[in-house]
Amino acid sequence: MEGILGVLGGMGPQATNTFYQRIIDRTQADTDQEHLRVLIWSDAKIPDRTAGILGTPEQAEAVFAHLLADAKLLEGAGCTVLAIPCNTSHYFADRLQAQLHVPIIHMIRETVKTIQAMGKQTVGILATDGTVQTGIYQNELTAAGLTPVTLPEELQKTVMSIIYDEIKKGETGSREKFGEIDAYLRSVGCDCAILGCTELSVYRTLHSLPPFYIDAMEILAEQLMYGVSKMVIFRSRSEDTVRVAMMAGTEQPKPMSMGTMLRPDRPILRRGLSITNAT
Questions:
Q1: Active-site residue, from 79, 86, 190, 192
Q2: What contacts 261, CB < 8 A, 6 or more positions away?
Q3: Interval 24-39: pLDDT, tens
């Protein structure tokens, strides 16, 4: 039976809407029936991730407990793979995965893999204080042999202002503020920068940004269209071997080549995903 993609969203609601639109845009389909089955749980009541992570241990646990309850809701509804279009929430991703029986596609690891494959070296990070201060991008970039660059304090405040004072409030975001950030990243020798907050992905949708900016949400949406992703969605209920981590040096099940649709005009794609272990 065809599986179901579960989207744990609401962080924020506009970002979830943008993410689903990107999935639709990247699905090669001529009819409704050729689209993926997607169950979106947009839970805007999840406590603020940055405030929780940088607050007390009790606040952080409250965020984790809410995320876990939502993830289990999606799992219980029959979802066979989960996507979380919120960068900061990936601070909890490995803990969440340990409590689930379906895989989570890891947006941060997918983004770093993509940047590494592009041959980039010095990578700017535009993200919330929670994402930056916990080092979730810095750790993955460093492990991949890349050089992470974070912003000085005043420009980090500017990023937070664009996210919280503008995009989350339904505004389009200041091009002047973003221009200051752009000038700094280029001046320190970055050859690309990660849009590591889904509100910044919304900003990119509203404004024209050059390829210098790598959109983590875009990469997550693109990975869902690849063959290995569909293998996980379609087969994770019937073949537990599909749920192993896609890591170099780890024995894998026999590769499966699948395109968005198996048609002559739709190319077969082979791509590995950074999917965390599912128990």
A1: 86
A2: 28, 29, 34
A3: 988 888 999 988 899 9
d(CA 156, CA 254): 45
What does pTM read for this prediction? 0.81
Is 86 a known active-site residue?
yes
Q: Which helix (H) or strand (E) holds 122?
A: strand 122-126
CA 267, CA 102: separation in Å to the nearest integer? 27
The active-site residue, picked from 79, 190, 192, 197, is: 197
SS3 (DSSP) at 246: coil
pLDDT in tens, 49-93: 999 999 999 999 999 999 999 999 999 999 999 999 999 999 999
For 45, the token pair is 């009541």
